[in-house]
Design goal:
The complex is a heterodimer of chains A (521) and B (236). Chain A is built from 26 helices and 13 strands. Chain A is 60% helix and 12% strand. In chain A, 39% of the residues are buried. Chain A folds into five domains: 172 residues, Arc Repressor Mutant, subunit A, CATH 1.10.10.10; 65 residues, no CATH class; 90 residues, Orthogonal Bundle (Arc Repressor Mutant, subunit A); 65 residues, Arc Repressor Mutant, subunit A, CATH 1.10.10; 68 residues. In chain A, helix 6 runs antiparallel to helix 7 and helix 24 runs antiparallel to helix 26. Chain A starts with 5 loop residues before the first helix and ends with a helix. In chain A, the strands form four sheets. Chain A has a four-stranded mixed beta sheet with strand order 1-3-2-6. By secondary structure, chain B is an alpha+beta fold. Chain B is flat. The relative contact order of chain B is 0.07. The interface between A and B is large, with 59 and 46 residues.
C-alpha cells in the first residue's frame, strides 16, 4: 500500500478501464486518489448517482479490486455509534491483473488441465462458489466428470492457489475502545496497534484464519454448509456476515451466488511467492551458472513456504538436489564447492543459509545498474557501481577507482545527481585555507521509489501503445481470413510481431515491477 | 638548493638560470621563494597574488615570465583543474595529486594503457579460468614488449577491480577445492563471469533510455501513441 506512485495509479486506472470500462475506472480512480471512503463520498466526488456507484463497486469487489469494511463511528443520538461502510482500493490486486498469464503458466506446471480451467474461470470472474465452478466446468468441459473437477479444485486449494474470499465487510471498531460491538476480528484488532493503518486492520480482519482460508471440509454441499455456518460463531463466515450486516450490494450478490456457500478466489500471495522463487533462481543462473540455479531451486522448493531466509544442512540439500534430473551428476564435494561460491549463502556447522532478501536486493541493483549503463554510459555505470554499497565517496576517489578522467568525473556525477540517481553532500574543511569537496552516495529508498514509478510509467506506455496498435489495425482484423491481399497479409504479420514484442516486453517489465514492489514485502 | 650550489662552484659551463638567481629583483625572489616553498604541489598564479598581497598582476606576470625564462620554474598541468596550470620550482617532480598517479600521462588519463591492460587480463583469465593478481602481473610482465612499463601487483589489482565494476569478472576467495586446487585457501582469485551481465527489462524498451520520459504523458505532446522511438522500435 505504501508504494502508491503517481504512475502506479495511472496504470491501475488504465487496467480497470480496459477490463471494465470508463465508469468503473472513474470510481476506482476516485478511491485510489482520495483514499478509503464511503459510497456517499464517492458519489459526491464522481458526481455519479449512488446506484451507479453501487453497481461499479459491486464489479470491483467481485474482481477483488476493492474491499469494503464497516467503520464504527460516533454519531446519532446519545452515546450511540453508527457503522459506515467504507471502500478501500486494493492497488496490488489491480496490478495483479497484468500477471494473469503468468499465473496460468505457474498452474500449468502442475500438469492438471482441469485445474487450469478452474483457475482460468476464477481469474475471469473474480469470485465463484464451488457450484458455479463445477457448473462452468460442466458447460465447457471436454474431459472428466464432476468428481474429477472437484478433485482438481481440492488440489488447487491444497496448493494454496485458491482461497476462500475474505469477509465481505468486517467491522472495525473505534480505535479507543477494544470491546463493545467489535466482535468480528476483535482478537486480531487487539494485536494490531496504532501504527497499523485502518486499511491494514480492515484487511487483517477480513482475511479468514489460515485453517479456514484453505479449508474445503465445509464444502460437502450447500445444505451441510448452511448448517455448519449456523452453528459456528467465528464471525468471519461469509454467509453469516451477510446476514448480520445485510449489505445492499451483498444481497444482490446472493442472487448470483448460493446463499451460504463459500465463495472462492485466486490466492495471489501464493503466485507471488512462487514467482519470487523463480526470480531468485533466474538471478542465480545469470550471476553464477546452471548448477547454482539448480541448487537454489531445490533448496527453496524443499521448504515451500518461503520466508526471508532458508537454512538446510548439506545432506538435506544434497537429497533435494539429486531428486532433480539436472542434479543427478552432482556429488557432495561439488555441491559444497558451489554453495561456498554463492554470495548470498552463509555456512555454519554444515548448515547453509540462503538469504532471499539479499538475492532480491542484488537483483534490484542489477536492474538499476542496467538502466544507468544504457542511459549514461559505461563510465557512469562504473561510478554508480562503486557507490552501490551505500558508502559515500568523494569525487577524487571515484575518479581513481573507476578510471575516469578527473576532469570529466564531476560532469558525469552531475548528470547522475541531476536525475536523482545519486546524492551529493558538500563538505567544507575548516582552517585558514578552506577547501570544499563533494561526497556522493546512492540513497536507495528515494531512488527505488522513483524507479518503481518509472517502471509503472513504462508499463502504462507499453499497454497504451499496444491498445493503439491493435486499434489502428482493427479494419484488417475484421477482414475475412481467406486469400487476403498481400498488403493485408503484411500488415497482419506486422501486427502479430508488434503484439508479441509489446506483450513480452510488458511481461518482462512486470518482473522488474514485482522485484521492486512485491518481493520484499 | 642543488641548482644554486652548482652555480656557486662555477667550473662548468653554467646552466641558464643557475647563476641568474643572484640577478633576481626582490619581487622575483619573493615569488620564486613562495613557489619553491610549495614543493611538489606548486601554486596557481592567482594564489601567488593573494599570498603575497600583491595587487598588481602585471608585476607577478613579469616575475613569472622572468623565472620561466631563467628556467627556475615551470608550468605543470593539474589533472583536477582544466586550464589551471600550476607553477613549480624546477627541482621538484609534480606530486601524484597533480599528475593523477601512474595512470596519467602529461595530465591526461592514459586510456590506451588501461584498455590494453584490461584486454590482456581478460584474455589471460579466459585462458586460465582462475588466477591471482600476482600470477597475472607475472604473465603481463613476461609478455614481450607488449607494454613499455613494468606493472606492479597493485596496478594489476586496480585493473581487475575495474573489470569487476564492469561486471566482466568476479573476485572469489579460494577454498582450495575444484578449480581453486592450485591456490592456497583464502587467497583472492579472479575469474571470468560465466555469463554476460543480464540486460534489465526496463533498459530493453525505449522508455528505459528515453531522455524525454519525464515529459511523456498519455495525453501529452509526447505520448506513447505518437512516440517516435516506439515507432522505430516497432518497425518490422
Amino acid at each position: 500500500m505504501a508504494a502508491l506512485t503517481p504512475y502506479g495509479i495511472k496504470l491501475a486506472v488504465h487496467i480497470i478501464t480496459t477490463d471494465f470500462g470508463n465508469l468503473v475506472a472513474k470510481i476506482c480512480e476516485c478511491i485510489l486518489r482520495r483514499g478509503t471512503q464511503s459510497r456517499a463520498l464517492i458519489s459526491r466526488f464522481t458526481e455519479l448517482p449512488q446506484d451507479k456507484v453501487k453497481k461499479c463497486l459491486w464489479v470491483l469487489i467481485q474482481h477483488n479490486c476493492v474491499q469494503a469494511f464497516g467503520l464504527e463511528q460516533e454519531g446519532g443520538a446519545r452515546d450511540t455509534t453508527v457503522v459506515v461502510t467504507q471502500y478501500m482500493a486494493l492497488f496490488d490486486n489491480i496490478i495483479q491483473r497484468l500477471r494473469f498469464p503468468k499465473f496460468m503458466v505457474t498452474v500449468s506446471m502442475e500438469k492438471d488441465k482441469k485445474g487450469e480451467e478452474i483457475l482460468e474461470g476464477l481469474l475471469q470472474h473474480g469470485r465463484l462458489t464451488l457450484t458455479q465452478i463445477l457448473d462452468r466446468a460442466r458447460a465447457r468441459s471436454s474431459v472428466g466428470n464432476q468428481d474429477a473437477h472437484r478433485e482438481s479444485f481440492r488440489k488447487l486449494v491444497r496448493g494454496r492457489f485458491v482461497e476462500r474470499c475474505p469477509a465481505p465487510e468486517p467491522l472495525i471498531s473505534l480505535p479507543t475502545e477494544g470491546e463493545g460491538p467489535a466482535k468480528k476480528g476483535g482478537g486480531r484488532n487487539k494485536i494490531a496497534r496504532k501504527e497499523v493503518t485502518l486499511e491494514e486492520r480492515a484487511l487483517a480482519a477480513a482475511i479468514p484464519m489460515d485453517a479456514e482460508r484453505f479449508s474445503i471440509s465445509y464444502d460437502q454441499g450447500v445444505d451441510s454448509d448452511e448448517e455448519k455456518s449456523e452453528s459456528k460463531s467465528s464471525g468471519l463466515k461469509v454467509g453469516e456476515k451477510r446476514k448480520q450486516h445485510n449489505l445492499e450490494w451483498d444481497n444482490e450478490l446472493d442472487i448470483n451466488g448460493g446463499k451460504k456457500e463459500p465463495v472462492w478466489r485466486v490466492n495471489f500471495d501464493e503466485f507471488i511467492k512462487r514467482l519470487r522463487i523463480k526470480a531468485c533462481v533466474e538471478y542465480a543462473r545469470s550471476e553464477y551458472d546452471n548448477v547454482a540455479a539448480v541448487i537454489l531451486n531445490s533448496m527453496l522448493e524443499g521448504t515451500q513456504r518461503t520466508t526471508s531466509t532458508v537454512s538446510l544442512s548439506l545432506d538435506s540439500i544434497f537429497e533435494q538436489v539429486i531428486k532433480r534430473e539436472e542434479g543427478l551428476t552432482m556429488n557432495l564435494e561439488h555441491l559444497r564447492c558451489s554453495l561456498e561460491q554463492l554470495d548470498f549463502c552463509s555456512e555454519a556447522d554444515d548448515v547453509y543459509t540462503i538469504n532471499l532478501h539479499e538475492i532480491i536486493k542484488k537483483a534490484q541493483f542489477e536492474e538499476v545498474e542496467s538502466i544507468v549503463k544504457k542511459r549514461y554510459g559505461i563510465e557512469a555505470f562504473r561510478m554508480f557501481r562503486s557507490l552501490s554499497n551505500g558508502r559515500p565517496l568523494d569525487t577524487d576517489k571515484i575518479s581513481e577507482r573507476t578510471f575516469v578522467d578527473k576532469k570529466s568525473t564531476p560532469q558525469i556525477l552531475y548528470k547522475l545527481w541531476k536525475d536523482n540517481y545519486i546524492q551529493m553532500e558538500k563538505i567544507s574543511t575548516g582552517g585558514p585555507r578552506q577547501t570544499d569537496f563533494f561526497l556522493w552516495r546512492v540513497k536507495k529508498d528515494n531512488l527505488w521509489h522513483q524507479i518503481l514509478d518509472e517502471l509503472y510509467h513504462a508499463a502504462l506506455n507499453l499497454s497504451l501503445r499496444y491498445a493503439h496498435e491493435v486499434d489502428q489495425e482493427r479494419e484488417i482484423q475484421n477482414l475475412s481470413m481467406e486469400n487476403p491481399p498481400p498488403e493485408v497479409k503484411k500488415r497482419r504479420e506486422r501486427l502479430r510481431n508488434v503484439r508479441f514484442l509489446l506483450d513480452s516486453s510488458l511481461m518482462k517489465l512486470d518482473d522488474a515491477v514485482m522485484l521492486f514492489h512485491d518481493f520484499l514485502v | 638548493m642543488s641548482l644554486r650550489g652548482e652555480g656557486a662552484l662555477g667550473y662548468k659551463r653554467s646552466r641558464p638560470g643557475s647563476n641568474t638567481s643572484k640577478e633576481l629583483n626582490p619581487d622575483e625572489r619573493n615569488v620564486y621563494n613562495l613557489i619553491k616553498s610549495k614543493g611538489d604541489m606548486g601554486i596557481w598564479k592567482g594564489d601567488i597574488r593573494r599570498e603575497l598581497n600583491m595587487n598588481n598582476t602585471k608585476i607577478i606576470d613579469n616575475c613569472v615570465k622572468a623565472l620561466q625564462l631563467n628556467q627556475m620554474i615551470r608550468e605543470v598541468p593539474d589533472v583536477k583543474a582544466k586550464g589551471k596550470k600550476r607553477l613549480m620550482a624546477m627541482e621538484f617532480e609534480p606530486s601524484k595529486e597533480l599528475t593523477g598517479g601512474v595512470w596519467y600521462q602529461d595530465g591526461i588519463l592514459d586510456e590506451d594503457l588501461i584498455d590494453n591492460l584490461k584486454l590482456v587480463c581478460l584474455k589471460l583469465l579466459s585462458r586460465h579460468k582462475v588466477a591471482t593478481a600476482d600470477g597475472l602481473r607475472h604473465e603481463i610482465n613476461n609478455l614481450d614488449g607488449a607494454f613499455h612499463v613494468e606493472v606492479t601487483v597493485d596496478q594489476v589489482k586496480e585493473i581487475l577491480d575495474n573489470l569487476i565494476l564492469e561486471k566482466e569478472i568476479s573476485k572469489v576467495k579460494s577454498n582450495g577445492m575444484g578449480e581453486f586446487a592450485s591456490f592456497p585457501v583464502n587467497v583472492d582469485c579472479y575469474k571470468l563471469k560465466s555469463k554476460r551481465a543480464k540486460m534489465g527489462a526496463f533498459s530493453m524498451i525505449p522508455c528505459g533510455v528515453c531522455p524525454q520520459i519525464n515529459h511523456c504523458a498519455p495525453d501529452g505532446i509526447i505520448s506513447p501513441v505518437t512516440c517516435v522511438y516506439y515507432t522505430k522500435w516497432l518497425e518490422f
